[in-house]
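Tip: read the tokens left to right.
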């Protein structure tokens, strides 16, 4: 009998450890990793490049409907293709980070991306990470994890990450940016960031990456066992 393949949802605020964990869990289980934040970032890059004034213009809907976004696993990382162009690096720019929460609060943008996420994930064997996976995209996901971490730990992580890329930043500034994005993501009308009732909360503040991965893999194995797969 072939083993059943789960849909695993990992949600949580910025820098709580979702991407790192999702990538490694997917590798361990032989699943596909779907970074939905990268999809919202890619659309945001396209909107910024188009020079559309005011994010709520009707043309955004048109633009989004005529966009292709692909996530290609390459050497353990995800390559993000926007209309065929590799934008894996440019979607992490400060300009995109600043604009992404506004663009992703537009209902029509979410509709297009959520449909795509459901299409890719519906066969199972996927680890999706984002803000609304367990609440909206796959409310029936087999395993839901809601990752959190203290603002201090998250800012330190971002600072370390930026330092590795040769960028020095002030910790207080980073805390402010993270708080602002959390606030925007949690209070918007469309699919706000919130824990699903049946999600397992995991505070990663004092955990290592390996411990996080181990936790999620163990839960996945328990789910598979419980369903006799
Ligand atoms: O910077 P970080 O990796 O924490 O964020 P991300 O996962 O790349 O997501 C960037 C932004 O996309 C978030 O701040 C949200 O505004 C938006 N997003 C969303 O609205 N819904 C998702 N499922 C994923 C991301
Ligand atoms: O996807 P999300 O924004 O939730 O977070 P991430 O991109 O997975 O993690 C943000 C940064 O924190 C990465 O550089 C991770 O390597 C780092 N991290 C860490 O230092 N310690 C942990 N326990 C988890 C993540």
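Filled-in amino acids:
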């Amino acid at each position: 009998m072939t083993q059943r393949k789960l849909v695993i949802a990992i949600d949580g605020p910025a820098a709580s450890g979702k991407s790192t964990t999702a990538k490694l869990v997917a590798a361990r289980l032989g699943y596909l990793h779907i970074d939905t934040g990268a999809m919202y970032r890619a659309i945001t890059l396209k909107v910024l490049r188009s020079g559309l004034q005011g994010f709520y213009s009707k043309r955004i809907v048109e633009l989004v409907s005529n966009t292709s976004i692909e996530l290609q696993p390459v050497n353990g990382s995800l390559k993000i293709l926007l209309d065929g162009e590799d934008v894996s690096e440019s979607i992490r720019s400060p300009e995109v980070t600043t604009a992404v929460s506004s663009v992703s609060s537009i209902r029509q943008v979410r509709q297009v991306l959520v449909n795509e996420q459901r299409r890719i994930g519906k066969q199972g064997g996927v680890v999706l990470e984002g803000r609304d996976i367990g609440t909206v995209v796959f409310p029936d996901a087999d395993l839901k994890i809601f990752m959190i971490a203290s603002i201090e730990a998250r800012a330190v992580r971002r600072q370390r990450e930026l330092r590795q890329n040769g960028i020095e930043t002030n910790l207080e500034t980073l805390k402010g940016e993270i708080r602002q994005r959390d606030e925007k993501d949690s209070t918007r009308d469309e699919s706000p960031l919130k824990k699903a009732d049946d999600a397992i909360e995991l505070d990663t503040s004092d955990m290592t990456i390996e411990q996080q991965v181990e936790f999620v893999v163990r839960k996945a194995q328990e789910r598979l066992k419980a369903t006799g797969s």
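The mean pLDDT is 93. The CA atoms of residues 70 and 81 lie 5 Å apart.
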